[in-house]
Design a protein that fits this description.
By secondary structure, the protein is an alpha/beta fold. 46% of the residues lie in helices and 18% in strands. A seven-stranded mixed β-sheet has the order 3-2-1-4-5-7-6, with helices on both faces. The radius of gyration is 18 Å and the shape is globular.
Length: 259
Amino acid sequence: MDENDLYSDAYNDFLAVVWGEGYLSPGGPEEVARILHGLDVKDAHVLDIGCGTGGIAVSLVRDHGAAHVTGIDIEAPACAAATRHAAEAGLTDRIAIRAVEPGPLDFADGSFGIVFSKDSIIHIADKEGLAADVFRVLEPGGWFAASDWLISHDDEPSADMKRYIEAEGLDFAMASPARYEAALKAAGFENVRLVNRNAWYAAVARQELDQMTGKARVGLVDRFGSELVDHNVEVWKAMVKVLESGEHCPHHLRGQRPR
């Protein structure tokens, strides 16, 4: 699969079939709710880092009562889709989508009550710099609530993990739970908490692979072509292997800026 096809409209549409309309990672609005469990989002101004195709921004407003969501992403096709989804939901007055370049967050100190991110920090190598930047743009008492795809250690990835990352063809910069926790604490966050979601996604990913290779395959090939479907089957096979070994361990991440 050509690198230019990654996060193209066709690829995003394929992921929407697997993960739900507006989502580029698993779990849909139910997983968003689990990431936010116990936090008061109502009337908050929220930054959504790696907003993808907009399903999360819509959920943050519609399901959780955020006053306003600013979604940022480096992928132009994803931002265009997110803007469309906000418009279709009638939420353009409460959702703003911005295409950005990689680098520090271009927002003033204390701009947001909540910074949210779902499975996009994996593309950012400097976890420590990101944690410090998120801390900066949060108001005192504000929360960072995220999920991300982690590796269980910071040593050389196993051969199976290397094969999975190569199959994805993305700029993965996976880090361990220990590194994420240390980065958040070093940035000044309190109430830091990490929750391992490996068991959940190992089961879900196996179901997704069964979907792609079972009765749904004919319809997927008719819509997207065999090349894209076959590529993703190989990705999912490699991913399931490292999920079942525990080396690939998605986590929820949380920390609070002191008041």
